[in-house]
Amino acid sequence: MAPLVFVVGGTGAQGIPVIRGLVKDGAYRVRALTRDLNSARAKQLLALGNVELQEGSFASETDLRAGLGGAQAAFVNIDGFNSGEKTEMFWAMRSYELALEAGLGFFVYDNYSKLISATETIRKMRANMDPLNPMASTLDPAIAQIYAQASAMRDALRETVPAPGAEARAKEEALARRRRTRKLASAALDTPARLRSLVADGKVLEAQRQWEMPRRLLVVWRDAGVGGVDVQACIDEGDAAVGRAKSPATDSGSSKDDSS
Q: Pfam family of this protein, just one (predicted)?
């Protein structure tokens, strides 16, 4: 008798082509879990041949145990978009644990956004199988077919769907840039007070040196219309702090000392 593959999510967009690939030459049988035995997609699967339907839910341990019973492999596909991420991850892990308990040789998990490679999972499960069991070797083409189907879908999705977490990373990077800008602005606006302290200690040249780069930055902000009148006020305060001996970076030109 052909080996049996238990499929969760068999009536979904990814499950149907996987099942079609498994049963097309009669080499494998499929038990597909579905909530509605009378749905159009369920009937479509039955028409393929070598397919039996099991009514139930992926979120039922009883239904999962029944589906895994007598199977040699499992392909689990849970729609996390509709069920929610926490529900998806819980039942994905639970179905894996139940598959281990049932002694399955292969377990492949896939979802709508990415393919999760099951190499380590398969290795652990193969270790639990009798090495003389011919089922172990005859299932290899089935698993290859599953990977080929799922990988093709994954690649197609990658072309249209951002990588998982891409939006969150972009937001974090934007927030980090805003924080750095605020920190830089705060340091620039605090410069005049520091300059006055240096001049008071007689460190005029050091004050001029420390004013050069902040002043350049402030001028760029002012010319770009960033910061409003506060930026120009800060420039004026810094210039006043270092007196007439301004930095060469000044945009207002040098002035002669009018003292005699």
A: NmrA
Amino acid at 24: K
Q: Look up residue 14 and give its amino acid.
A: Q
Domain residue limits, the chain: 4-160, 168-241
- With contact defined as beta carbons under 8 Å apart, do 90 and 123 qualify? no
> What's the predicted TM-score (pTM) here?
0.45
Write out the DSSP string of 139-184.
THHHHHHHHHHHHHHHHHHHHHSPPTTHHHHHHHHHHHHHHHHHHH
Mean pLDDT on 107-128: 48
Structure tokens at 119: 């190499």
Sign of the Cα pseudo-torsion (79, 85, 91, 97, in order): positive
With residue 1 as reference, give the H or E element that holds it. none
pLDDT band at 23 (very low <50, low <70, confident <90, very high): confident
Q: CB–CB of 188/214 below 8 Å? A: yes
As a whole number of angstroms, the distance between CA 83 and CA 45 comes to 23
Q: Which CATH class is domain 4-160?
A: alpha beta
How far out from the chain centre does Cα 81 lie?
14
Q: What are phi and psi of 31, to 5 degrees?
A: -110, 115
